[in-house]
Predict the 3D structure of the following.
Amino acid sequence: MKRRDLLKNLTLGTAAMVAIPAWAKNWSANDLPMGKVLAPADEALLTDIIDTLIPKTDTPGAIELGVEKYVKAMVDTMHTAEEQKAFYAGIPSVDAFAKRKYGSAFSSLSANQKVECLGMIERNEDTTLQKFFKTLKNYSIQGYTGSEWYMTEKAGYEYAPGYGFACVDVEQ
């Protein structure tokens, strides 16, 4: 490896570590900064889309863990104002897409139709809608797998591993 490549990789790695806010790792819903306030219809639709991506089963779903707050916080802190505007404009376009394909709003579709609709959006030719969905999906997965519940219950994360036990009898 050449020295220039090594320095470039070290610089990029350091920049990436600095760029991700501290709350983005092992977060809980109470730790998040206040996200953008959306219209009630957009808020409900965003919640419904995220709930379709990671629904509640025998484990908590994304909505129970507050992933929708995480998604808004990430968009508000990690994207430019123009990108934020494009992301939030993508929320009602999901409803418009569902109305074109199924004749009714996204929230009134069955669970299978919602999954099918999101699959069509992911493969859609409209790059704006595709980019919105990709961002939403990535942040939803990142938020779910980085949540306090997931880290402690599923990933086996311990805050202070390697506990020390003093005054223990030693057998010979």
Summary: The CA atoms of residues 88 and 132 lie 8 Å apart. The chain has seven helices and no strands.
